[in-house]
Amino acid sequence: MRLGSGTFAACCVVIEVLGVALFLRGFFPAPVCSFSGTEHQTESPAPEPSAGAISNWTKLPPPLFSKVVIMLIDALRDDFVFGSKGVKFMPYTTYLVEKGSSHSFVAEAKPPTVTMPRIKALMTGSLPGFIDVVRNLNSPTLLEDNVITRAKAAGKRIIFYGDETWVKLFPKHFVEYDGTTSFFVSDYTEVDDNVTRHLDKVLKRRDWDVLILHYLGLDHIGHISGPNSPLIGRKLSEMDSVLMKIHTSLLSEERETLLPNLLVLCGDHGMSEAGGHGASSVEEVNTAMILISSAFERKPGDVRRPKYIQQTDLAATLSIGLGLPIPKSSIGNLIFPVVEGKPMREQLRFLHLNTVQLSKLLQENVPSYKKEPGFEQFKVSERLHGNWVRLYLEENSSEVLSNLGSKVRRQYLDALRALSLSLSRQAAQYDVYSMAVGTVLVLEVLALLLVSGPRALSGKAELDVPLPSPAFSLLCYLLPLGLAALHVTVCTSAGGTCYLCSLPWLTAGGVMVLVSTLLCAVLSALTGMFAGGKRLSKNPPQCNSRSSELDLLILLGTVGHTLSLGASSFIEEEPQTWYFLVNTLCLALCHEIYRNCFLGDDCAPQRCPHAGEDFDGVAAAPQGKSPGPDVWELDRASRRPSPLGALRGPDRWMVLASPWLILTCCRLLRSLNQTGVQWAHRPDLGHWLTSPDHKVELSVLAAVSLIMIFVLVQKRCSLASKVAMAFGLLGIYCYRVAIGNLLFPWQQNNKDISKGITEARFVYVFVLGILFTGTKGLLKSQITADDFTVKTVGLWEIYSGLVLLAALLLRPHNLPVLALSLVIQTIMTQFVWRPLRHNAAEVTVMHYWFGQAFFYFQGNSNSIATVDISAGFVGLDAYVEIPAMLLTTFATYTGPVLWASHLVNFLTSEASRPAPETQASGTLCLCTKLTSTSVDGAKVANCHLLRLRELSPHWLSLWKGPQSVSS
């Protein structure tokens, strides 16, 4: 069977996308939810158990509070309130915690610790999935049962001011609202003033039941300058004043109401030491939660450490406090201290409603729910509760009722914890079957490409899949039957449902046939390859390739990295793996250079530079034309190669020193940004440079880095692009001065801080101009096919535009990362790849390795908390979704994208390469992308140990880097 190269490539891409989609469908767990929906909101609550007696309590308990105010401070870490910062900057809050009528807790927020999933958790009591991180950028309407919807249905009047995410999640739920944009992180003053300005008016009114305030300024300060910024203290003092105003107003109003009011101070997530959030560090998941009400007993001076609760517990507590049914998908427990002062019968009734709701949710999501310990404890609790109610209705002695009631209460609390734990475990289960099938599909495509890729992707070749013996054909016919039997076995076995099992049998059968067909194609291609290898072994080559050692290192490094991702500790510390691989690569290149210079090689003609070849570019071609393959072959035949040992002067010394210079650069970069779980907390040069005391040193380093960038980039640009690059880099420095990051030499300090919008847009103009010039050159080269120089200059100018954009978006202390990246690229191009004549496959893998290393040199990690979202708002005075997403993505993956772009430039400039090698590079790029996908599959075995939020940024980096190269 023969397939053309285009058909073969298209089939590989389609099957790969199918495999990845199937893998992701199984990887993102189905949420624990109630299948009865929210339409039955008028259903009667569970009656009070009475053990045969007639109970008169069949309705929901009345509300505990007249009004509820929720003051949510974005990124309110627990130590901001309960630590030294709270004592210093929040005195009124500290007073309430220690001596007031309040209950203080450390509320644990389950990852992903970003705003929209946390709001869902607070209001629904459920555990949002990691897919909500993506939906956080464009929050859809929340259809899941929640406290806000229940309150609106009960006639409660709700007012909201703050993050517009609430308005998107709960449209038409608020009688009055004023939303503020949460993504414009450069603003941390006006975004809170827009909330506070409504307080004086709304606190005097009596026409509302629930008031929700969402303050964003603290989170924005964290994104800009981290949790240790002096701005943090001023913002906490501002929030303390707001809390005091609300609390005193609620206390004065209680004189005219029968029920007390409730004030809830809480955070949606914490803040990492770098200022971000999204992952699972203690600083990100531990948030402060304080419940303040005159209904609670005053504490004489309680300085104990607050107890830990789950953030999902708030939904059940608010529902009980407002006299509402608990949301059906809530897995949270009632915060018992809130009702601890109530009569025993009310306490037990509240606990019973909570356990009934959790038990129903367990029955709907766990097939073997009767075996769960929480369900058994619930049945015991309900039976004991019925006995207590019977004794209560029979008016037994108070001592008997108190003793039995305490026992029932303990039993209920144990049952609540067990039920909630069982539901939390259920939410973390994965569809392993779908993940396995998706991974197998991707690995089969990868194997087929590795075996047949060089022939199939050649421009003139076709993929020939031979059909071997009848016995082999019989095996391929029986394979689908075996897979179908396996599918039936999996789908009929006990356990949770699988996505593939829910598909129609015809569709699932098609997937099984596809898997078996690919496997047969791989085996057939392997048979043909071994047959060809036997024929080739009869005529062995006369000399061994001197690249065998380097190729072995590349192979072992790639395979070893893939295998290392089977352990969670290696994923958490993946930066160390890439640092090791890059350093080892430099040592291997050093060994190869020294061997060529001092010992020579039998196969030197394949490796040594041509006499008279310029290290800064390709060999000269007549009239700027691209030399065709025949010209280069003739040139090789007529010239005698010059070994590296023949080099003299500076070129020789630069070639010898190049690996050591690269190692030195990498060591400096490792000290700039510490990353990884075990290293992120250690001091580094980045933290030292970004402290306010070292702004002068940071300014000097940034200026030197910008000058280096200009010198290294401008040499191959046109005159217009050189001028644009110079003015653009100058504009970048002015932008950083305007926003207060850097200083001009004549400045002592920069008190006049602005958003730098004009300066940033000034730079964007030059970026677009350079990109336009490069694109015009590329289009011109397509029209004039022989104009090779125009094409290379156009590609380089596009690369230069990306470098200028990266310099604008990266934080000032990361400008040396960009500058040293260009230095390493220049050294490798002039003194390693061209002198040693590495083939396209080796150069591609080296670019990929360095691109991954520079992803971590920037300070990134396999945690979404290290994503610098402030880069998406450079030059913007309002949140614009598409540009903000694109800029944030580019700033995060600057390393892989720039190294991929440099690879395109290098391979294009190497016109002397024979056509098969250049085509092989395309094969390798596609294989690299698929290898990255298989790496994701290798992580499956570890998903239950390594939390999902550690992987998402890493997956994106694996896909985007090679994808840019292959395109």
What order do the strands of the largest sheet run in, or round the barrel if closed? 5-4-6-2-7-8-3-9
Q: What structural category do the secondary elements indicate?
A: mainly alpha
Terminal-residue CA separation: 28 Å
pLDDT averaged over residues: 80
The number of distinct helices, counting runs of at least 4 residues, comes to 37
Low-confidence stretches: 457-461, 541-546, 602-643, 912-967
Main sheet overview: 8 strands, mixed
Number of domains: 3
Label the overall shape. globular
The proportion of residues in beta strands is 5-15%
Tally of strands: 10
InterPro entries: Alkaline_phosphatase_core_sf, Phosphodiest/P_Trfase, PIG-G_N, PIGG/GPI7, PIGG/GPI7_C
Pfam family, one: PIGO_PIGG
GO molecular function, one term: CP2 mannose-ethanolamine phosphotransferase activity
Keywords: Endoplasmic reticulum, Glycoprotein, GPI-anchor biosynthesis, Membrane, Transferase, Transmembrane, Transmembrane helix
Please explain how this structure is put together.
- The chain is mainly alpha-helical.
- It folds into three domains: 2-28 and 431-537, no CATH class; 68-310, Alkaline Phosphatase, subunit A (3-Layer(aba) Sandwich); 548-966, no CATH class.
- The chain is built from 37 helices and ten strands.
- 47% of the residues are buried.
